[in-house]
Amino acid sequence: MEYQGNILKMRSEFADPVRYFFRIGDQEIDMNALLGKQIRMQFDGQINCIACGKRTKTSFSQGFCYSCLQTAPEASETVMRPELSKSQFGIARDMKWAEEHDLIDHIVYLAVSSELKVGVTRHHQVPTRWIDQGASYAIRVAQTPNRHIAGVIEVFLKKYFTDKTNWRDMLKNNVAENFNLPEEKENVLRLLPAELRQYRCDNDEVMHFNYPALEFPDKIKSLSFDKEPVIEGEMKGIKGQYLLLDGGQVLNVRKHNGYYLSFSFNS
Q1: Which of 5, 65, 224, 259 is the most exposed place for a label (fewest CB within 10 A)?
Q2: Structure pTM?
Q3: Range of 31's domain?
Q4: pLDDT higher than 80, residue 267
Q5: pLDDT in tens, 90-126
Q6: Residue after which a domain boundary falls, among 182, 208, 234
Q7: DSSP 209
Q8: Which strands sit side by side in the sheet containing 137-144, from one edge to the other?
Q9: Same domain, 131 and 166
Q10: Which of 63-98 are b and which e, b meaning 16 or more Cβ less than 10 Å from the residue's Cβ?
């Protein structure tokens, strides 16, 4: 069976294991059902901006044309650096968008993908954000009324924790198991000054994620449609936003937002 269309990052559903759906055109493919099967993806050279839809020779920041990179609210620098958000002062690329995405509750969290890391996400992105990062465990630390305050807390905590995921260790499933997240949360809160500690989140649930995989790679070969227009192999697993193929081949689907592909598999 063959599908064609522009792709977006995989949609996920929290389950045991996590369920993944490959979005291509206006259709979705149940990727869990393809474990152990041969898949083939072909890129024909067409990329469309995920914001405006226009064709672009180069994809910037996971799916934008250069113009939208400079102007679209979804591509603002506050996406990567929430502490820079000024929407609480009425300053943003698009205030209507900011009201729906920045001026809402945000979660500061601790997650274990390979090592313990700190991060920020919008409240409605729990647990999707953690799944996209390939986290094995996660806990809420603080809940803030806007993106800026969450970013300030994250910047403070980056003095003690990383905010990056070691994606190679994550894909190899090399996960540190020696963290007690409720204890780590209390340690984090003690580090915060009082004006930030007031945003403590009372939800102490530790979420655990299992990912669909027949096996995880020992060695990794990262693939890109920019270098290899045809990518094929046996589906060995899915973790984060990566497809894991045989021979240690891995493909970051999110990196290729807006790419026009043909996708086929043996039934």
Answers
A1: 224
A2: 0.95
A3: 2-58+213-265
A4: no
A5: 999 999 999 999 999 999 999 999 899 999 999 999 9
A6: 208
A7: -
A8: 116-122, 106-112, 137-144, 206-208
A9: yes
A10: bbbeebbeebbbbbebeeebbebebeeeebbeeeeb
